[in-house]
Write a structure and sequence with these properties.
Elements lengths: L1 E7 L2 E7 L5 H8 L18 E4 L2 E4 L12 E3 L13 H8 L9 H11 L20 H7 L10 H12 L1
Parallel strand pairs: 1-5
Antiparallel strand pairs: 1-2, 3-4, 3-5
Helix pairs in contact: 2-5
InterPro entries: 2Fe-2S-bd (IPR002888), 2Fe-2S-bd_dom_sf (IPR036884), 2Fe-2S_ferredoxin-like_sf (IPR036010), 2Fe-2S_ferredoxin-type (IPR001041), 2Fe2S_fd_BS (IPR006058), Aldehyde_Oxdr_Iron-Sulfur (IPR052914), Beta-grasp_dom_sf (IPR012675)
Protein name: 2Fe-2S iron-sulfur cluster binding domain-containing protein
Keywords: Iron, Metal-binding, Oxidoreductase
Length: 164
């Protein structure tokens, strides 16, 4: 067991946790934040994606003890704090970027993190420059988030609308 302090969506939590507890299980079972979904529990689908200190992470693979002293943002914390939607959430609604919605929390957190990440990707032609977020760049950077319904076209369109 270990004592940790983690700030989740702006609220600090001091907890005693099993050192084997995943961040996803901490969020869902201990803190009642069920927006992040348990899809594959192997880091392959992205349904559990959250932001840890602003960077995308699969919560099913992150141990809760490694988040001691860090800031975690889940889909519940993306909005403006007054109940307003994050621009990505509004864009997903506007562009019908989801069907069943199971992957949507992870897609939203991943997109929010991706929009702030500089640098090239596997499809960037000039590796010395920070590329514009073309549809190909967005698809590549979001490739860790799977959608069983196939809403990818609308997801890319929604993200394009926010990045402008």
């Amino acid at each position: 067991m270990a004592e940790i302090t983690v700030r989740v969506n702006g609220t600090e939590h001091s907890l005693i946790v099993d050192t084997r507890l995943s961040l996803l299980d901490l969020l869902r079972e201990r803190l009642g934040l069920t927006g992040s979904k348990k899809g594959c529990d192997h880091g392959q689908c992205g349904a559990c994606t959250v932001l840890i200190d602003g960077r995308r992470s699969n919560a099913c693979l992150a141990l809760a003890v490694t988040c001691d002293g860090l800031d975690v943002t889940t889909v519940e914390g993306l909005g403006d704090g007054d109940g307003g939607l994050h621009p990505l959430q509004a864009a997903f609604i506007e562009h019908d970027a989801f069907q069943c919605g199971y992957c949507t929390p992870g897609q939203l957190c991943s997109a929010a993190g991706m929009l702030t990440e500089p640098g090239p990707s596997a499809v960037t032609e000039d590796l010395m420059e920070d590329p514009p977020l073309t549809p190909a760049e967005i698809r590549e950077r979001m490739s860790g988030n799977l959608c069983r319904c196939g809403a990818y076209v609308n997801i890319v369109t929604a993200i394009e609308g926010v990045r402008r």
